[in-house]
């Protein structure tokens, strides 16, 4: 994520959202952080929204966040105000119809 303008609504990560509503095949979501909050970028913290109190995850190189993708984990990411935030999103599905086929070796 950068401080460049969003091109699509899905690039607007700073809006509260539920992954399962945006990506129906997501049952679990994971984020692997590839840069450090405060060193490589400002803003960009991951915020879980809760009625009692929000929970904030500060990205750190190598940190892995893993959560269910449903409405119980509504969240957003603060806008990046400086630098570049790198993270890898990896989703998991429980739907056998949506699974990725195992790769085969070419002969």
Give the tally of β-strands: 8
- Number of helical regions: 1
- Report the uncertain regions: none
Rg: 15 Å
Strand order in the largest sheet: 5-1-8
Give a summary of the structure in a few sentences:
The chain has 107 residues and is mainly β. The protein is 4% helix and 28% strand.
Q: Would you give an account of this structure?
A:
With 107 residues, this protein is mainly beta. It has one helix at residues 19-22; strands at 28-33, 41-42, 46-48, 55-57, 64-68, 75-77, 82-83, 87-92. The strands form three sheets. Strands 5-1-8 form a three-stranded antiparallel sheet, with no helix packed on it. It has a three-stranded antiparallel sheet with strand order 4-3-6, with no helix packed on it. Strands 2-7 form a two-stranded antiparallel sheet. It is globular, with a radius of gyration of 15 Å.
Main attributes?
4% helix, 8 strands, globular, mainly beta, three-stranded antiparallel beta sheet
Question: What is the topology?
Answer:
Elements: H1 19-22, E1 28-33, E2 41-42, E3 46-48, E4 55-57, E5 64-68, E6 75-77, E7 82-83, E8 87-92
């Amino acid at each position: 994520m950068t401080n460049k303008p969003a091109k699509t609504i899905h690039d607007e990560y700073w809006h509260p959202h539920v992954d399962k509503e945006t990506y129906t095949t997501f049952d679990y979501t994971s984020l692997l952080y590839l840069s450090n909050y405060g060193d490589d970028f400002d803003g960009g913290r991951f915020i879980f929204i809760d009625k009692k109190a929000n929970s904030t995850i500060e990205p750190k190189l190598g940190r892995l966040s893993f959560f269910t993708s449903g409405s119980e984990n509504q969240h957003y990411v603060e806008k990046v105000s400086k630098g570049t935030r790198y993270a890898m999103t990896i989703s998991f599905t429980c739907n056998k119809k949506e699974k990725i086929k195992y790769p085969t070796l070419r002969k």
